[in-house]
Design goal:
Elements: E1 2-8, E2 19-20, E3 26-33, H1 41-51, E4 73-76, E5 80-85, E6 105-106, E7 109-113, H2 116-128, E8 133-138, H3 145-159, E9 163-169, H4 178-186, E10 190-194, E11 214-217, E12 221-225, H5 231-235, E13 237-238, E14 244-245, E15 251-255, H6 258-274, E16 293-300, H7 308-318, E17 320-327, E18 331-332, H8 335-346, E19 350-356
Parallel strand pairs: 1-19, 2-18, 8-9, 9-10, 17-19
Antiparallel strand pairs: 3-16, 4-5, 5-17, 6-16, 7-15, 8-11, 11-12, 12-15, 13-14
Helix pairs in contact: 2-3, 7-8
Length: 376
């Protein structure tokens, strides 16, 4: 039996997909190896058709979480979860996510980024190669050096005739002057705020914000993860000694069929925000099969019938046979998830939880782990 709680100083400024039971809407990416699955034409067409739909039940804000189920089951979100399951008893996809119209998508390739500079360079490179459209969605889009680099790249493509659409959260962008986004609109970029509020600091709808961080270029390249657009993600945070401390986070580049899931999610939020319907073959091009992975893009939110993200994680933990490793900046889980982790540790599963030594949030720093670390 093993349960390890570790606080890591280098992860002290980790922000991303947080593991909390009451966060707003979210999006999860599940990735696993397709064993015995045959993506024939009928199934592939069904997956693509659903991906092109504007989800009818998707009416709230969407907080984007990423879970990568590689190896046996590996999950990466604003938290990172590695749950190794029984050999030979691995599902080709997580059935609990099926309630969210998360159809299996085959053959995607993922490239991880663990620092803001590498991620931003990759995003700007992909934008430079855009030919038809660029879709950008962030909770925070700051008017600083990093934000202006992205703005200038998007403006250049808009002037070339490329369609550029931006969704940003009205609360997340508190402090960003209106002129920043108005300037983009003047240059031909469609930029809209999600759920505008008059007094962001006093809004009670914290759980109804849009925390998604999505980029889609020509329907062929996608980006998703925990990094917003701000200098602190690229340059780090200045401490009292004048030195900068690295901001540790995780982001992914997706190529292949998984991009259609990100596209459908973005266009769902776009439709809800602007009342515009955008779709068609130009936005959902036929993908290449690049790997043997099977992926699910899983939307979830406070207005949905099911708590899809939480249930999918609980499902993965409950099926673990070797290990459950979790890395998260915020640990505020449900009692059910706590119980599942306790039971896994008592059953001899290697359970490890990695938390930041210093958190950027007082709430996120609450030591809830002390209530269940006794089994280890």
């Amino acid at each position: 039996m093993r349960l390890v709680i570790q606080r890591v100083s280098r992860a002290s400024v980790t922000i991303g997909t947080e593991l909390r039971s009451s966060i707003g809407a979210g999006l999860m990416v599940l990735v696993g190896v397709a064993e015995g699955d045959n993506p024939d034409d009928a199934r592939w067409l069904a997956a693509k058709t659903v991906a092109m739909r504007i989800f009818p039940d998707d009416k709230g804000v969407m907080n984007r979480s990423v879970i990568d189920c590689g190896g046996d089951i590996l999950a990466v979100s604003q938290f990172t979860l590695n749950a190794s399951t029984r050999k030979g008893n691995r599902p080709s996809y997580i059935h609990a996510a099926g309630h969210a119209l998360a159809v299996p998508l085959y053959g995607s390739r993922l490239t991880p980024y663990v620092d803001g500079k590498t991620k931003m360079d990759a995003l700007l490179e992909a934008i430079a190669g855009a030919r038809h459209h660029i879709h950008i969605q962030y909770y925070i889009f700051s008017d600083d050096e990093t934000g202006r680099r992205l703005r200038d790249a998007l403006t250049a493509k808009a002037r070339e005739g490329v369609e550029v659409r931006i969704l940003y959260d009205d609360v997340g962008c508190t402090g960003v002057k209106k002129a920043f986004f108005e300037g983009m609109r003047a240059d031909g970029i469609e930029a809209y705020s999600f759920l505008h509020v008059k007094f962001p600091r006093f809004t009670s709808k914290v759980n109804y914000r849009n925390h998604r961080k999505i980029g889609v270029i020509d329907g062929r390249i996608g980006f998703i993860g925990g990094m917003n657009v701000a200098d602190r993600y690229v340059l780090g945070i200045e401490r009292g000694n004048g030195k900068r401390e690295r901001w540790r986070d995780t982001h992914f580049r997706i190529e292949g069929s998984g991009v259609a899931g990100l596209q459908a999610s973005f266009l769902s939020d776009w439709s809800a925000t602007t009342k515009q319907a955008v779709g068609g073959p130009a936005y959902f091009p036929a993908p290449e099969r690049l790997t043997d992975n099977v992926m699910q893009i899983v939307p979830s939110g406070p207005l949905g019938k099911w708590r899809t993200l939480l249930q999918a994680v609980e499902y993965a933990v409950s099926r673990a046979a070797q290990r459950v490793w979790i890395e998260t900046p915020y640990y505020l889980p449900s009692e059910t998830l706590n119980a599942a982790l306790q039971e896994a540790a008592l059953a001899g599963i290697d359970v490890r939880l990695m938390l930041p030594e210093r958190s950027d949030s007082r709430v996120g720093a609450t030591p809830t782990w002390t209530t269940w670390c006794r089994p280890g």
